[in-house]
Design brief:
By secondary structure, this protein is of the alpha+beta class. It has 9 helices and 14 strands. It has helices at 2-18, 29-43, 50-63, 74-84, 112-116, 137-144, 197-210, 228-238, 281-289, and strands at 87-90, 93-98, 101-107, 123-127, 130-131, 151-158, 161-168, 170-173, 177-182, 185-190, 215-219, 242-247, 257-261, 269-273. The strands form 4 sheets. Strands 2, 3, 4, 5, 6 and 7 form a 6-stranded antiparallel β-sheet that branches. Helix 7 runs parallel beside helix 8. It is globular, with a radius of gyration of 24 Å. It starts with a helix and ends with a helix.
């Protein structure tokens, strides 16, 4: 009870000290942030470094915008770039934050998670017995990542059942394109727009053209996106000449980008499959084709 009183008193002190200085001009934000950072560093029982405080502030700033705006630190950026290059060390899953934890939106084929029996739609509630409920997907992913050969424990909610998975991390190689030809129809699935997808898709389309196939079923379900340029490369093999998409920036200091298709392609009949897991670059491609 005594400790609780101290905490309540500390909260009141914070409110009294800073309630009058919340309305500050942009030029004063630096000094105000430094003051708050020093206060937290001095008073918080776990302590806080300047770098940790800046990272937390930036993550909070971006997350306050919408669920698609995210700040990545150096390690998270490195991991993101590795995954977009088609190779990364981990368990082989794609993640999304939900109210009850971290939802697994994709399990990559032949990955450690796939072999362990993890399923799309599973909800991760803890990593190595540390709760990830309320945390963003990037924080959870950072906890799951590690060195190849090291185990990680995932606590997963599947329906009304709680399951424990001990998975050994490994290098995951993502093959983003899968296809087959049946009854004069080419089925092509793109899992994500990683580096090189445009070149891989061109090879697939060369095979499709050799078979004189014009009906294509393009599967973008649970495709979280990736590089816009790769999605544009795919569009250029399927669409007629003209504009594919335009990146219209709010800032006048950044030049807008207009992506066009200069190629004259055969007239394909394209059906596109999307779902709630189709995002970012896959939405650009689906919208362009529509």
């Amino acid at each position: 009870m005594k400790k609780l009183k101290h905490i309540v008193s500390l909260t009141l002190v914070v409110l009294l000290l800073f309630s009058g200085t919340l309305h500050v001009s942009a030029s004063e934000y630096g000094d105000y942030f430094d003051t708050m950072l020093r206060f937290v560093s001095d008073m918080y029982y776990k302590g806080l470094t300047d770098e940790e405080g800046l990272k937390a502030a930036l993550k909070g700033l971006f997350s306050s915008l919408d669920k698609y705006s995210v700040f990545y630190d150096r390690e998270e950026t490195k991991a993101l770039n590795s995954s977009l290059n088609g190779n990364f060390v981990g368990v082989g899953i794609a993640l999304e934050k939900v109210e009850t934890g971290i939802k697994i939106t994709k399990v990559y084929q032949d990955s450690p998670a796939d072999k362990a029996g993890v399923l799309e739609g599973d909800i991760i509630t803890a990593v190595d017995d540390v709760s990830v409920v309320g945390k963003d997907a990037e924080t959870a992913a950072a906890a799951i990542r590690g060195n190849a050969g090291e185990p990680v424990k995932l606590t997963i909610k599947r329906g009304d059942t709680i399951k424990q998975f001990n998975i050994v991390r490994a290098t995951v190689t993502v093959s983003s394109i899968h296809y087959r030809i049946e009854d004069n129809v080419a089925y092509i699935r793109i899992d994500s727009f990683t580096s090189g997808v445009g070149v891989q898709f061109a090879r697939v389309m060369d095979t499709v053209d050799k078979h004189n196939i014009r009906k294509i079923l393009l599967d973008l379900r649970n495709n979280p996106g990736g590089y816009v340029d790769e999605a544009v490369s795919v569009a250029r093999r399927l669409m007629p000449q003209g504009i594919i998409t335009t990146l219209d920036y709010k800032s006048e200091e950044i030049v807008d980008r207009v992506y066009t298709n200069p190629l004259k392609n055969p007239e394909y009949i394209v059906g596109v499959l999307v779902n709630e897991g189709s995002a970012s670059a896959s939405e650009i491609l689906a919208g362009a084709l529509e």
